Amino acid sequence: MIEKFPEGFLWGGAVAANQCEGAYNIDGKGLSIQDIAPKGIAGPITDEPTEDNLKLVGIDFYHRYKEDVKLFAKMGFKVFRTSIAWSRIFPNGDDAQPNEAGLKFYDDLFDECLKYNIEPLVTISHYETPLNLARKYDGWTNRKLIGFYENYVRTIFTRYKNKVKYWLTFNEINSIVHAPFLSGGILTPKEKLSKQDLYQAIHHELVASALATKIGHEIMPQAKIGCMVIAVPVYPMTPNPDDVLKAFETDRSNLLFTDIHVKGKYPSYAKRLFQENGITIHMEPEDEEILKNTVDFISFSYYMSVCETSDTSKKAGEGNLMGGVPNPYLKASEWGWQIDPKGIRYILNTLYDRYEKPLFIVENGLGANDQLITGEDGEKTVKDDYRIRYLNDHLVQVGEAIKDGVEVMGYTTWGCIDVVSASTAQLSKRYGFIYVDRNDDGSGSLDRYEKKSFHWYKEVIATNGTALKEE
Question: Care to name a GO molecular-function term for this sequence (predicted)?
Answer without folding.
Answer: beta-glucosidase activity
